């Protein structure tokens, strides 16, 4: 019904002003018309400032828990919406930081439920391919040391605990996506995203790497909450974006883990940050916070074999790029020594 009439396909990115979403828009704009939808509940206009000057990029401020009629926006007429519709949808709309589990629990649940449903209804209308950004959080905490999660693992988690609005929200969203695929004919994909880092991460939202960098830049002690010997993996954002695009382009399989295989202890990551910033600061440990959880490790065999995807940016290289970003923006971010 909706065929591609323009040289560029029309792609909608929900949550496109957020951390991963804005980097995804940066890459998609090279070959597609991009419609970014965000309500700035956690995203930032600064993340898309340069894109706003691109004629192939349009921003719509909208709460996706409410239905979205794209054909009512006159600024989208240049994309021939009534005739071409949209060819792809990426759903990255969801609060994701640990502090949001306490401050925005209802919003987190409704975004995973109502916003996902509204976007899936758009996919039905336009016969668009649909990619949902899920999370490794659906697996819950590992039941053994260094447990690796494959896509066929069902998970072990508390359905009413401090993180339940996010964990159970993501699990419900996955079920919604899969059932739309089976019963409404939507071409769907699920990306279970493991720890991701890079430029444009927010400060003071409870994420480890930006907290470490901020402490190092401001010459404050780096605090590790929980065990310093816990092992974790972190994927640089450009690798994650590459994985999302490769997943959207393929038609073999639905659920894929996306994450790094490069394991480091939390203490080792803290020390790398200190070394790269040249900071003269100490590392201390403190009791784990209620909204944090032990991390499982990703099995990305399926992504490597089917998508031909695996991360390329080493942790130290990615951390250097991230630190450079924070240093370049330290005035705007309020990063100055006391």
Tell me what the structure shows.
- The chain is an alpha/beta fold and 338 residues long.
- It folds into two domains: 9-197 and 234-258, Rossmann fold, CATH 3.40.50.720; 208-233 and 262-295 and 314-333, UDP-galactose 4-epimerase, domain 1 (Alpha-Beta Complex).
- The protein has helices at residues 19-28, 81-84, 98-103, 105-126, 164-183, 208-217, 237-249, 266-277, 301-307, 315-328, 330-333; strands at residues 9-14, 32-38, 57-61, 88-91, 129-135, 148-149, 188-193, 196-197, 222-225, 231-233, 235-236, 255-258, 263-265, 283-286, 297-298.
- The strands form five sheets. A seven-stranded parallel sheet has the order 3-2-1-4-5-7-12, sandwiched between helices.
- Strand 1, helix 1 and strand 2 form a beta-alpha-beta unit.
- Helix 6 packs across helix 10.
- The protein is globular.
- The protein starts with 8 loop residues before the first strand and ends in a 5-residue tail after the last helix.
- 45% of the residues are buried.
Summarize the structure.
With 338 residues, this protein is of the alpha/beta class. The chain contains 11 helices and 15 strands.
